[in-house]
C-alpha cells in the first residue's frame, strides 16, 4: 500500500507504455511540449469535464470524477464514470457479509454499478496503452467503492464510436505490472536513453528528446561532417 504523498498520475501509465523515455521526460524532468494531437486531446477532455452530471433513466453520468488507488499508487480524474442501475441483490444465507454488487448514490434510489468511460481524440491503437489506462481507472473504482467493475469503454473522437472493454485477468495483470514499472522508474530517478522508432514521428517531445542521439552515430564524426559541409558551402 502506498501513502497519499506517493501517488503518481494514472495517465503516466499511457506514457510509460508508449515510451519509457517519454514518461521519464514528463514525470521526472517536467518536460512538456504540445503539438496538434496533444492540443486536440486536451480540448476534448476539457469539453467533457465542463459538462454537468446527469441521470438518464437507468444510467447516471458523472464527469471529472476523482480516482485513487493506494494499492497501485495512482490518482486521476476520470473523464466520465457512468453508473448503471442494477437489481437489488438478495442476501445469501451462506454469506454473513456479502459484497454489494453496486454502490449507493446520493438522492438516487437503488444500486448502481460503475462503468468508466475514457475519451480519446484519435483511433484505437495497436498496443494496450489505452486499455491499461482504462483498466487502472476500474481498479481505482473497485478499491474506492468495494464493488466489482467488470467493464468500461473507450470513446474515440476520430471514429465517433465506443469500444467496450472487458477487464479480464490478463488485462488486470498487465495494468498492475505497468503500475509497478512506473513506480520503479520514478524511484530510480533516471531517464532512459533515446531509442529512435516509428512512434517518434508522432511524439510531441521529439524536439526535446532528440531520439536520433541514441542511434549509435559518433558525435565526433557527426561534428566533423557538419563542419565539412559548412566549409564546402562557404567555398
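^ C-alpha cells above, recovered residues below v
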Amino acid at each position: 500500500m502506498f501513502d497519499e504523498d506517493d501517488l503518481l498520475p494514472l495517465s503516466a501509465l499511457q506514457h510509460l507504455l508508449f515510451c519509457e523515455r517519454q514518461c521519464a521526460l514528463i514525470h521526472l524532468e517536467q518536460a512538456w511540449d504540445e503539438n496538434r494531437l496533444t492540443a486536440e486531446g486536451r480540448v476534448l477532455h476539457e469539453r467533457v469535464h465542463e459538462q454537468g452530471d446527469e441521470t438518464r433513466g437507468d444510467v447516471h453520468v458523472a464527469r471529472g470524477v476523482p480516482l485513487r488507488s493506494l494499492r497501485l499508487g495512482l490518482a486521476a480524474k476520470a473523464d466520465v464514470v457512468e453508473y448503471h442501475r442494477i437489481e437489488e441483490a438478495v442476501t445469501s444465507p451462506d454469506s454473513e457479509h456479502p459484497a454489494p454488487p453496486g454502490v449507493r448514490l446520493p438522492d438516487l434510489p437503488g444500486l448502481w454499478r460503475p462503468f468508466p468511460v475514457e475519451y480519446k481524440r484519435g483511433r484505437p491503437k495497436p498496443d494496450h496503452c489505452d486499455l491499461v489506462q482504462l483498466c487502472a481507472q476500474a481498479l481505482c473504482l473497485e478499491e474506492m467503492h468495494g464493488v466489482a467493475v467488470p467493464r468500461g469503454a473507450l470513446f474515440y473522437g476520430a471514429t465517433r464510436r465506443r469500444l467496450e472493454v472487458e477487464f479480464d485477468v490478463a488485462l488486470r495483470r498487465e495494468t498492475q505490472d505497468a503500475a509497478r514499472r512506473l513506480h520503479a522508474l520514478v524511484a530510480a530517478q533516471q531517464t532512459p536513453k533515446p531509442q529512435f522508432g516509428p512512434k517518434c514521428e508522432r511524439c510531441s517531445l521529439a524536439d526535446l528528446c532528440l531520439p536520433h542521439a541514441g542511434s549509435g552515430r559518433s558525435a565526433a564524426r557527426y561534428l566533423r561532417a557538419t563542419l565539412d559541409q559548412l566549409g564546402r558551402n562557404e567555398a
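Strands lie at 8-9, 54-56, 59-69, 74-86, 103-105, 108-120, 151-156, 161-166.
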